[in-house]
Amino acid sequence: QLVESGGRLVQAGGSLRISCAASGRSLRNAALGWIRQAQGKDREIIASIRWSGGATYYADSVKGRFTISKDTATNTVSLQMNGLKPEDTAIYYCAAGYGIIISSMPSVSQYNYWGQGTQVTVSS
User: Among 36, 79, 97, 112, which has the minimal tally of Cβ within 10 Å of its Cβ?
Assistant: First the structure.
């Protein structure tokens, strides 16, 4: 089970941290990702992290502004978002998948387990 939290309204240029608490299945061979979907657009994977080892992937659209991290003690993955832009407005989903190679650009279809999503709205 994946449960996201932290989404809210924030002004452009601001920062926000969203988190995802994972429970149930072992994460040992998993990759956790943040996938967002803006209204009228396809889902986009923006960041992912391997639970073992910590290798990360970032989409070009967020590279340098967003940071994904994990806390193995609490089974939580977080996304620190800085320099937010109105185009970052979307529902942000936490998702998990197994057998994902982080060094290659992962695809949304590789993530089999999803949270319910949390809304992030950036006002201009």
Answer: 112
Question: What are the C-alpha distances in Å from 25 to residues 4, 18, 75, 109?
Answer: 17, 21, 11, 19
CB 92 within 8 A of CB 30: no
Cα–Cα distance list, 97 to 30, 38, 92, 111 (Å): 6, 22, 16, 4
User: Which residue has 């994990």 as its token pair?
Assistant: 70
> Is the alpha carbon torsion for 27, 53, 34, 9 positive or negative?
positive
> What residue has token string 């601001």?
14
Sign (positive/negative) of CA torsion 124, 64, 107, 79?
A: negative
Give me 41's structure tokens. 């657009």
Kindly report, residue by residue over 53-106, the tens digit of the pLDDT.
889 999 999 999 999 999 999 999 999 999 999 999 999 999 999 988 887 788
Q: Residue type at 30?
A: A
